[in-house]
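Need residues for this backbone.
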């Protein structure tokens, strides 16, 4: 199963760091994932995001307003893979 991942943010440096850490975690786990960068601010409230950058895994907001580490993202992705 492919894991759906969204990075929410305007495309700032922090957003790119979240995406880089997420791609590293996906690679470590050897998962299939579709990573999308959402820059439309009108979509953020539907995920409950108050501050960018945000990270959504399988339509669940797992992080907002900070840059999660590769280790954190790895844990969230492993949990999502098990739940799928």
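Answer:
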């Amino acid at each position: 199963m492919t894991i759906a991942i969204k990075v929410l943010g305007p495309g700032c440096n922090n957003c790119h760091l979240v995406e880089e850490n997420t791609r590293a975690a996906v690679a470590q786990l050897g998962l299939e994932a579709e990573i999308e960068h959402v820059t439309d601010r009108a979509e953020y409230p539907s995920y409950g995001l108050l501050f960018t950058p945000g990270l959504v895994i399988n339509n669940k907001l797992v992080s907002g307003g900070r840059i999660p580490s590769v280790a954190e993202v790895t844990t969230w992705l492993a949990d999502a893979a098990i739940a799928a």
